[in-house]
Design goal:
It is built from 8 helices and 10 strands. The protein has 237 residues and is α+β, with helices and mostly antiparallel strands.
Length: 237
């Protein structure tokens, strides 16, 4: 069940520095603080469903949320894994549209809900905040375009290698030259991120292990050779 712990004031929130709220003036941050709700969510809970109407925005205090679309055959395409400081649902809210995707808690999370009027009010009274939100939306569109290009031009092997590198960057824990992805994802979820069949992911992970690129520890993946994965993904960073 969700519960309502004591609200963490936005001005004292350790996740705020990662969010679009980081530079808001004190008066506005206090106004948001006074009107928000901090709610604890358990793994597997749905935050919102595709096709429903947004009533505000969500800001992640802690935990991980998967943003996904469900195809007509029931398969999930995972668009994004959101973590602390990320805003959810603001594109639909600003576009006055229903949610174009769904959000599910992937790792126990604390999430602040900010009502629509309070969020819009902050945008209208702070041009700098408005610019940051617009820039963030523009960046999201660019990322989506890049993913569409990759889906048509890169092989499944290249895409999986790239996804593993990205997961390592976001959730990796270093240890003895290896990098453990400290996030439990099912093989179906990895397939949902890559945009392929679960069987292909299982087969390729097994091949990557054989080639000494990764190690498998239960459901967790350990990256042993970042450079090898980078070469494989045709991605140089």
């Amino acid at each position: 069940m969700s519960s309502h712990p004591h609200n963490t004031p936005c001005e004292l929130c350790s996740s705020r520095k990662f969010s679009l709220f980081s530079d808001l003036p004190e008066a506005q941050i206090c106004n948001i603080s006074d009107h928000k709700n901090l709610i604890s969510h358990r793994k597997g809970q749905i935050l919102y469903y595709e096709g429903t109407k947004p009533l505000g925005i969500f800001c992640i205090n802690s935990g991980v949320v998967k943003i996904y679309k469900t195809a007509s055959n029931g398969k999930e395409q995972i668009i994004h894994l959101a973590q602390r400081g990320d805003f959810l649902g603001y594109a639909a809210l600003l576009g006055e549209e229903n949610y174009s995707n769904s959000a599910m808690i992937l790792e126990d999370a604390k999430i602040c809900f900010v009502p629509k009027e309070v969020f819009i009010n902050s945008l209208l009274h702070n041009p700098q905040f408005f610019r940051r939100v617009a820039k963030s939306l523009s960046h999201e569109i660019g990322v989506m375009e890049g993913k569409l290009t990759d889906a048509t031009q890169k092989s499944i092997r290249e895409r999986l290698a790239y996804v593993l590198l990205q997961l390592g960057n976001s959730y990796g824990v270093e240890g003895g030259g290896n990098q453990k992805i400290d996030l439990i994802l099912s093989r179906e979820e990895i397939a949902g991120i890559v945009g392929t069949a679960t069987e292909s992911v299982i087969r390729l992970l097994s091949e990557f292990k054989k080639d000494n690129l990764i190690e498998l520890e239960g459901k967790k993946i350990i990256i042993k050779d970042r450079r090898g994965l980078a070469r494989l993904s045709d991605f140089y960073a």
